[in-house]
Amino acid sequence: MKFTIPQEENMHPGHLACPGCGGALAMRLALKALGKKTMVVLPACCWSIINGPFPYSAVKVPLFHTAFETAGSVSSGIKAALDILGKKDITVLAWAGDGGTFDIGLQALSAAAERNDDFIYVCYDNEAYMNTGIQRSSATPWGAWSSTTPAAKEEPKKNIMDIMVAHRIPYAATASVSYPDDFIRKLKRAKDIKGTRFIHALVCCPTGWKCSSEISIKLTRLAVQSGIFPLYEVENGLKYTLNKPQQISPDNKLIRSYLGAQGRFANLSEKDTKKIVADIKSEWLRLLNKIEGNICIKQ
Amino acid sequence: MKQVFQLPPWAISTESTLYNKTGSWRNYRPVYRNRIPPCNNACPSGEKIQQYIDILNQEEGLYKAWKLLTQDNPFPAVCGRVCFHPCENSCNRSDYDEPINIHTIERFIGDIGLNEGFKWRLPRVNKKYKIAIIGAGPAGLSCAYHLRRRGYQSTIFEADNKLGGLLSQGIPSYRLPQDIVQAEIARIIKSDVKIHSNTAIGNEYDFDKLLKEYKTVFIAIGAHKEKKLGIPGAEHPSVIPALEFLYQLCAGKRVKIGQRVGIIGGGNSALDAARSVLRLGKKPIVIYRRTENEMPAILDEIQEAKEEQIEFVFLAAPERIIIRNNKIVSLECIKMKLGQADKTGRRQPIPIKGSDFKVGVDTIIPAIGEEVDTSFIPGSFLKVLDDTVSTNYEGVFAGGDAVTGPKTVVDAIGAGKKAAHLIHCYLRQVCLPVGASEKPVVFEDLNTAYFEHETRIPSGKLPLSSRLKTFAEVYQGYEKPQLKQECSRCFSCGVCNKCDNCFVFCPDMSVNKRAGKYEFDYDYCKGCGVCVLECPRNAIGLVQEER
Amino acid sequence: MKEVMSGNHAVSYGAMLSRAQVIAAYPITPQTQIVEMLSEFCRTGRLKAKFIKVESEHSALAACIGASIAGARAFTATSAQGLALMHELIHWAANGRMPIVMADVNRSMAPGWSIWTDQNDSLSQRDTGWLQFYCESNQEVIDTIIQGYKIAETVLLPVMVVLDAFVLSHTSEGVDIPEQKLVDKFLPPYKPQYKMDLNQTLAFGALVTPDYNFELKYQIQEAMEYSLTLARKVDKEFKRFSGRNYGLIEPYRCARAEIILVTSGTITSTAREVIDNLRKQGEKIGLLKIRMFRPFPAQEVIEALEDCKKVAVIDRNIGYGVGGILCQEIKSAFCNNARRPEIFGYITGIGGRDVTPDTIMEIVIDVRKNNKADNRIKYVGLRKLR
Ligand SMILES: Cc1cc2nc3c(=O)[nH]c(=O)nc-3n(C[C@H](O)[C@H](O)[C@H](O)COP(=O)(O)OP(=O)(O)OC[C@H]3O[C@@H](n4cnc5c(N)ncnc54)[C@H](O)[C@@H]3O)c2cc1C
Ligand SMILES: Cc1ncc(C[n+]2csc(CCOP(=O)(O)OP(=O)(O)O)c2C)c(N)n1
Ligand code: SF4
Ligand code: SF4
Ligand code: SF4
Ligand SMILES: [Mg+2]
Predict the structure, then answer these.
(1) Does ligand 5 come within 6 angstroms of the Cβ of B528?
(2) Omega into C192 within 30° of 0, i.e. cis?
(3) Mean per-residue pLDDT for B14-32?
(4) Do C62 and A77 touch (CB under 8 A)?
């Protein structure tokens, strides 16, 4: 199998991401998919560092660094300005971490989604506040170590997709850089839709996940395969489509090899692991139910 | 309103991060380094299997594939039919689903070469050196070919009137049609190789004389001396040794056999004899000392014999032939059981006392093995040295079945190739390495996430019903679409096939594609190793930076 | 064309005449009418702008920041809690040199809930890099918004136009609405040099190391200083087509005055009446109105006050732990000046308590009887609790 991804490179090397950063690759692929007519809105997150200090920038498109909680609101403002100035063919891309999305930026994002403002919002989810040194966020999974959950996080990960889908936005999807063809297809698809489009991309942060850098892609692939992070799309808050279903089998072995490769899960007891496996399986069934729910919807 | 030197009003970036040479962060450096695919490694003639499959996948043309293949093996059409394909046994794909059908691909390339009349471009002949080859079997012919590729002309002395050794004196045509064998041989001969057929060294031509005249000799006489059955009744005229039986068939002669033919042995000769008997309309019964698992015949043949419903009597050894009125009426056998494994790993058969039984047969074909006959070499015997081709005689080399005892076609071809190499070294007084001995890629080295499961495409095959009564070829090979599909299954183990993965997954844009090749940009590569792991075929290594 | 309108409507008209292109605002008493009227202007097409109905003031200013960096003229309006909620972005707009104009209707900060005026909300944003204008009338509101854009877009700093809750926001007066054609000539379309633009591919606001940051902040101060000169120029230019101007400060009947009251916002109008009466009675008393608070026009203030004997600064705000904020500013302006009047600080009208001519008279009487000022805060209208 050969991936057919756009050759156009809209990012420079020399950026400041850690070796093996999944978030860096995510931006690279996204900009390949969206092309040069894109403007990036970047709240505080690792990417604020990755893109380089003043007077440098790693992306070959305009980029605005903004306050941590404002990806949604600033994007709305930029899009409104572009509209009124008659520049209708520009894609505004809000690019935020899990902290900026699940936590501090949720209000602004929710409001923009409710207004169905016209931009693509990508949450690159590395499951903690990495910029500030691996503090837990509401995207940190149950049982994971972080510098503010020194034993383990005791609350489950927030389901951001459910939240966004509840806004009935035209398009919401999960995506993974481990599946570049799917990732790019989703961004291209999003580009062709009007309104708020939300992409939730799980990315590996080797530093924060305490794993070796070369398994960055492998881990997020395992996350998909094991059902921890299934790839799916939701149209208009109603129509669910599961992607790459033949890849997914939420089984014990895959989940364990995902957990086992990461130092942040090193403290899990056998009982903890069993709970995680059980939770993942039940979440997976929940998703399957939603997909089956499609049948009831007459469109 | 004052502004400071060239500063913009606020933090507005105008430059790119290219200033920041992140290559200095690196502790490990990725390097492209093609490794040895296990299939190539397993092929005794050293075919570059992965590479010709890749040529087909990249649609670079059959000629290119044929040229590459025949660099190592001048008999693709033959080997594509009869080789026991150790390449497939070691194919990494077998750990995933099923091995690549390499021999059928090879056969396709070989057949195309014959049909299209593909030709080699060989160097001019250097007449300074005289080289004699004894025996025109695969070993001898391969040696002649490989010498020719190096610019040497050789002279082959062959006892028989036909060339090909067991290819034309043993293997039946339902497996290997003679026109194929002869066409591939003709191509070698035409490339300027001298032939003296009907010239047995020892009989028609003295060995010492030959040695004086040629100085350099390659002995490739095969192993044709039948082992004796050595049981009472073995001298009866209806006891026909397998090689003789098959030789007659190959020569197109009619051999007189009865209705029920007992074939003793479990090797290729035994099965070929049995299947030939079947095709002559008689009933073959194969009697073997051990079980199916220990049979030395190649697996495909056992499979086909079973398909053809040939009767097997396992764990039985012949004791004596019972003859009445000068006719064989039955074969008395004793039952065996398997004991401890011997040095070769096969379990030894042990007779069970008093378990005699009879098998009703009127003809017996012993196929219990052949030995090498070097009696024509006067006064002494041949000793083969460590490299398996050189001998204790100066300028004399030996290979193929003549050295190993009955083995395989491709081993003989490989031996001929190696001999050509060593002869070259001997004549030029140089010592070139035979080949690198790196570790081939194993299945665990691969990243199979990028491979879909796909079943192996079988070769076309005659239906059972139409193959029992004729000597028509059983296997039909591929058509082009099947070829394409099967080639696409190849993992290309250890060798970059430009899948783009390293390029796609690099978070640092440090894989550049230039003129169809990949290069690392060490100015920026951080050495994360992602490309190394995501290369499906282990064509990238990681080496520690020296800093 | 003259029309009777409230201060809030004056704000809306000001934004409309300035042809704001993106508006993002969130309702809060006493600013709500601004949001409503601008929504209506956008709906009817009187104003060709995008109104983003955000979920908070925080997002309102964020959206304006986005609009501004993308090259549009952005407007917002808020009050008290809303302004405080914006705080992080107030800095963002200034440090990002975004010429946004915002109306702040002064309202006392909660808790407890209050909807009435005092200046603590806007003054607590005084060091953020925004220009601040305190308006006395609805006419001044509409005019200052138009002037505000002109200044902001030249110096690349945001402008806050402040008006008192209810006293202006909900009180109707006759307002002369400038002709759109003339406003357009005065205020051409916004054409920023740096913006989000596909041809420029700039990145805005990256990490700034200590190597550069000092200089970047210094440039803000430079721009602030320059805006004093510019604001004067713009004010004069404005007069040329409208017949009105305001100055950065306005000395009222200060000739040979021995006592000068200093005011800002609507207290000024009340004080004018008192001054008129006292002058009629022959008292040497005048009034100084502070219109521009940031940047603080210290030199003009010194020149206006240095010749008198006593200055009474009336603050409708408290810098807790210090005193009236305007008073502090004036005292520090005089600190290195050789000639210095006695400066008395009065705090009054907090939480929207009425400031009447009597309140002002109480102050005048107090100044008259004291010759030496001290740093004690004098409260006027404060009910004695014991
Ligand atoms: C029935 C049968 C079936 C087989 N099937 C397979 C198979 O399916 N796949 C496989 O890989 N292998 C098979 N083999 C084994 C394979 O044929 C041999 O291993 C291979 O042919 C050996 O090649 P060679 O060149 O060493 O010897 P040979 O093929 O035996 O050739 C030796 C040649 O030397 C000639 N010669 C001998 N003595 C002299 C002399 N004194 N002077 C001149 N010439 C002489 C002989 O006439 C002969 O032509 C089979 C063998 C048999 C008998
Ligand atoms: C209002 C505010 N609070 C806190 C911070 C400090 N801060 C910067 S980035 C960050 C965490 C970002 O986490 P996330 O969004 O997950 O992105 P990541 O760094 O993991 O890529 C925090 C807490 C801030 N910049 N702004
Ligand atoms: S998959 Fe291809 S390269 Fe790998 S061993 Fe098999 S034939 Fe050779
Ligand atoms: S990843 Fe693909 S393109 Fe890169 S080295 Fe490996 S085979 Fe070649
Ligand atoms: S993926 Fe890129 S940065 Fe990482 S080792 Fe390979 S070339 Fe270097
Ligand atoms: Mg994060």
Answers:
(1) yes
(2) no
(3) 97
(4) yes
CATH architecture of the domain covering C2-242: 3-Layer(aba) Sandwich (3.40)
All residues at 6 or more sequence positions from A250 whose CB lies less than 8 Å from its CB, including other chains:
A226, A227, A228, A280, A281, A284
CATH hierarchy code of domain B225-368: 3.50.50.60
**Are A3 and B504 a contacting pair at CB < 8 A?**
yes
Residues with CB under 5 A from ligand 6 (ion): A 97-98, 126, 130
- Vertex B515, ends B512 and B519: CA angle to 5°? 30
List pLDDT tens digits, range B450-485: 999 999 999 999 998 888 888 899 999 999 999 999
Distance from CA of B525 to the nearest CA of A (A): 8
Smallest Cβ–Cβ distance between B14 and the set A15, A55, A218 belongs to A55
Q: Which residues of B touch C97 (CB under 8 A)?
A: 9-10
Is ligand 1 within 6 A of the CB of residue B160?
yes
Mean pLDDT score, B277-290: 93
User: Look-up: residue for tokens 């031509």?
Assistant: B205
Q: ipTM for the complex? A: 0.97
pLDDT of residue C386 exceeding 80: no
Topology agreement, domain B126-223+372-428 and domain B225-368:
yes
Domains and CATH numbers, chain A: 22-298 (3.40.50.970)
**Residue ranges per domain, chain B?**
28-34+496-544, 38-119+446-487, 126-223+372-428, 225-368
Element (H, E) at B497: none
Distance CA A195, CA A183 (A): 19
The architecture in CATH of the region B126-223+372-428 reads 3-Layer(bba) Sandwich (3.50)
pTM of structure = 0.91
User: For residues C327, C328, C329 and C333, what is the CA-based torsion angle, rounded to 10 degrees?
Assistant: 100
Q: Which amino acid is at B232?
A: P
What residues have CB less than 8 Å from A85, skipping those under 6 apart?
C21, C70, C71, C72
DSSP per-residue letters across chain A: ----------B-S---PPTT-HHHHHHHHHHHHH-SSEEEEEESSHHHHHT-STTEESBSS-EEEE-TT-HHHHHHHHHHHHHHTT-TTPEEEEEEEHIIIIITTHHHHHHHHHHT-SEEEEEEE-SSBTTTTSB--TTSPTT--BTTBSS---SPPP-HHHHHHTTT-SEEEEEETTSHHHHHHHHHHHHTS-SEEEEEEE---HHHHT--GGGHHHHHHHHHHTTSS--EEEETTTEEEESSGGG----HHHHHHHHHT-GGGTT--HHHHHHHHHHHHHHHHHHHHHHHHGGG---
CATH of domain C249-379: 3.40.50.920
Task: Please report which confidence band the pLDDT of residue A299 belongs to, taking 50, 70 and 90 as the band edges.
Answer: very low
Q: Is B28-34+496-544 a domain of CATH 3.30.70.20?
A: yes
Q: Which residues of A touch C49 (CB under 8 A)?
A: 84
CA atoms within 13 A on the CB side of C98: 34
Count of Cβ atoms closer than 10 Å to residue B95 Cβ: 12
Ligand 2 atom 26: residue of nearest CA: A68
HSE at residue A243, side-chain half, CA atoms within 13 A, is 19
A191 touches C at CB < 8 Å: no
Residue B435 pLDDT > 90? no
Question: Tokens in use for C57?
Answer: 């003031």
**Stretch(es) of chain C classified as CATH 3.40.50.920:** 249-379
Phi, psi of C297 (to 5 degrees): -80, 65
Compare CB distances from B16 to A54, A56, A216 and report the shortest one's residue: A56
Integer Cα distance of B404 and B389 in angstroms = 10
Residues of chain C with CATH 3.40.50.970: 2-242
The predicted-structure confidence for B405-418, as pLDDT tens digits, reads as follows 889 999 999 999 99
